[in-house]
Design brief:
one-carbon metabolism (chains A, B, C, D); globular; four-stranded antiparallel β-sheet; homotetramer; Alpha-Beta Plaits; Rossmann fold
Chain lengths: 285, 285, 285, 285
Amino acid sequence: MSAIVFLIQCKDQKGLLAGISSFFAERGFNILHCQQYTDVEQGQYFMRLKLEDHGDMPRATLEQEFAAFASQLKLVWSVRYTNVPYRVALLVTKASHCPYDLLLRELEGELKCDIPLIIGNHADLESMAKQFNKPFYHLPITPETKQAQEQQIKNLLAEYQIDLVVMARYMQILSEQFVEEFRGRVINIHHGFLPAFQGAKPYHQAYERGVKLIGATAHYATAELDEGPIIEQDVERVMHDNSPEDLVMIGKDIERLVLARAVKAHIEHRIIISGRRTIVFSEGA
Amino acid sequence: MSAIVFLIQCKDQKGLLAGISSFFAERGFNILHCQQYTDVEQGQYFMRLKLEDHGDMPRATLEQEFAAFASQLKLVWSVRYTNVPYRVALLVTKASHCPYDLLLRELEGELKCDIPLIIGNHADLESMAKQFNKPFYHLPITPETKQAQEQQIKNLLAEYQIDLVVMARYMQILSEQFVEEFRGRVINIHHGFLPAFQGAKPYHQAYERGVKLIGATAHYATAELDEGPIIEQDVERVMHDNSPEDLVMIGKDIERLVLARAVKAHIEHRIIISGRRTIVFSEGA
Amino acid sequence: MSAIVFLIQCKDQKGLLAGISSFFAERGFNILHCQQYTDVEQGQYFMRLKLEDHGDMPRATLEQEFAAFASQLKLVWSVRYTNVPYRVALLVTKASHCPYDLLLRELEGELKCDIPLIIGNHADLESMAKQFNKPFYHLPITPETKQAQEQQIKNLLAEYQIDLVVMARYMQILSEQFVEEFRGRVINIHHGFLPAFQGAKPYHQAYERGVKLIGATAHYATAELDEGPIIEQDVERVMHDNSPEDLVMIGKDIERLVLARAVKAHIEHRIIISGRRTIVFSEGA
Amino acid sequence: MSAIVFLIQCKDQKGLLAGISSFFAERGFNILHCQQYTDVEQGQYFMRLKLEDHGDMPRATLEQEFAAFASQLKLVWSVRYTNVPYRVALLVTKASHCPYDLLLRELEGELKCDIPLIIGNHADLESMAKQFNKPFYHLPITPETKQAQEQQIKNLLAEYQIDLVVMARYMQILSEQFVEEFRGRVINIHHGFLPAFQGAKPYHQAYERGVKLIGATAHYATAELDEGPIIEQDVERVMHDNSPEDLVMIGKDIERLVLARAVKAHIEHRIIISGRRTIVFSEGA
């Protein structure tokens, strides 16, 4: 059975739930799941609606009618159909742990998406791509070619009709123009510590500072480096007798898990971005 | 600002969300938060609605009108008003860690309830009650007096108009008749291990078995001992070098936390019991 | 730099630490790490010693001299050299999440071992083996061929000089004779719940019971099914709105992680089995 | 049975374990537990030794003989006797959750120390002190009286023979002179976020930034604010629908737990400070 998922946000106002749910009830849609959230601080309303697709109404008609309805209430909205999987591109450099994990989860059916291509600024992970029968594009980058390389990436994203770009330990900073064009459609992962460490060799710094937790954060890429809306975070406990190399290894496991959860939330159409925050509706829905 | 919280369950059917939300919209109530869940396996629908109390409609009227509406749709429902705090009785024996924790959280405002009395089958915790200026009733129990003692408890619960009974490490089994009469209104806490251990000294058994996790489960009391609907569970990691005494101590921290979370969910009117399961709506609401 | 790792256990007695550490100091070995643990309940002493291999003493000589020393103190001991990696065989059926994870970790260098072969009682995972360039042996099993099939497995383990067998979701019960012969050298993984569930479809049962945590346990295989010494356990929190399918998926992630940690502890020679318990020395060492 | 606990650190060198353990073996001491750790990066060696106190040697003699032995090997060391509990002073302001928790744990026997006095720069927690029959000293502070107030605190610490000062949400910055004088003997607790937030209302900032984890860090106080050696850290998961007030409440639970664990590690003489790091030996010992 296919389902239809709406994500909606607007200024909070009376009667929203009744109004929106009536819209779908009148058209014979069974609501499988409805989650809503009101940000009282900001006066904003958020909703995720999952409908059973009865198939009696063409999708274009549904979208047209909802657009008309939404414009009255000033709803910002988007819709996805669960039988149309997200198309996801992986950007990689040399580290394989994150892209491997995502490829495995696609294969295992844990991530219900298509990953039709992998793009690397180094060629190291070409064999990994081959293992999974994925086309691999090696697009090296130098200060001089950065702009041209990004254009090549954009061309590939267009050619492969990509919905979501995952920076799976892609050790390059995308240009402001790129992240603006793909706002809310580029996910990045980076390590995270308490306290935070600037500069090189952060795991070494964390060791020298004797931190007891190391973590990772997945967020949408924005022009401010590592400052985009947070999607998911997690930490793992470490001990004084863990070497800096242990910390790196433990960090890899957290990065894998946090990135996979963030991608899963996105491709299940469970995330609404609101300013610097994300609303991530629970996965049960 | 006071709020009104409805908990609703019924057979799943089309139009529920639109119908229920319209009922309140028509009466001018602003919906602050709505959570719903459909148990697809059982075909059951569950909802928690939090309304702003505009004060224009007497509570008796609202309840009467909703009762009429609910009977048409065969809704099972209950309502609470956030300015009427739950009244909670603590049943205790000798262990002080759980009741102390609950009393502190009441004092700190973390549990927005009233704890007007403490009942112990031993007198050991009378001083604790005194520390918090609570009346303490010492109702000892022997095989012969068990029935009479339970009657005394019931009289006290009635006298103090108690909504919820918390067995805060009360080392007695309540009679089947008692738990039936207070079905869904008695919360118990017990340790939990993987694998489970029967019989005495469970922490010692867990040590001998070399478990790596110890845990606790809070559940509603039912006639089947420790088998009632689970409200909350948690575990803590232990090591081979933790002694059985360490395990007991670690276990106390988990019991405290798990019981406090379960009581918090209940007094915030966030739990619906469905057969052997509970639906625990998230605390943010 | 290569290191030498001793695991030692014996009846607790005075002077053990001084005696053992002097043995190595007299032979010019620098002790990189020493962990010890006394099980006061059982009066047993456990030690893990990691020595810098100065290379001035042939390994055979060291082992001979230590054997003589150990027999006086009635030490039970074993030794491994970090430049001789464990050789690990994977037993699989159809589920790929655990074997995939182990193969990836070998590739990534997170598990410093060799996995020279994969044995499946079904042929489903042959392609996975091919992806990683590993020989795959398809040894189907029927009630009639069970004994013969186990003999084939044993032959392969001998041929490939296997140190450790990992049942990576191998859905067969090894014979008592097999697990006795490979006592302490077969690791198994299974799901774990609070409370435990018997019989088929445990995740479904867990859903119906409304558990809030699901987990996994890795243990050494023994003749009593799922009752061998526990190596590692973990849990993940679940919610009422997670479907049975969600629980299965979440369970896969825990199984992966728990099994990988157990294998890592074994191949780093950090585990001593003592009756039904394991002593798992910390990974930092 | 009483035990003797040595904490030792020195430059790493051959024969340390053999030498030190022989010292005690020769004097008839049974080693109950020995933990050691080598910081390979820094070339530093750390040891915690727990001896059974056979009572045949006066403590002064033992300490004298060990001092002579230690000076040869350039060991930095300290010793505690488990039958001489640490004496702990609480510094408080208005927030009661941390001091309450510590007082309860003393009462429950979870923290085996004596808390003979509470010092507050506000009088709000006098009633809490009374509940636990503890003397309470109200020492208000103004920019003008800061120095004099610290002198009063020092006088009280001397009078009550205090070993450890716990800043249990004491909202004052101790002077550089004070923390130097009590280096390694003042524990502080503060919230911690990923990313970190400067300035006022950190929980509000965390909400606005949509963090998914909030945490706390316990550390030794040093002249650099919140930058002392970390003892313990933990986090709790939060959701988009948790209000800033929820975050504060969840933060209180973490602060309580993290501070209690840090104090427990200190009074069990399990912590060695090494530059900006701490070595925290495991609690099982």
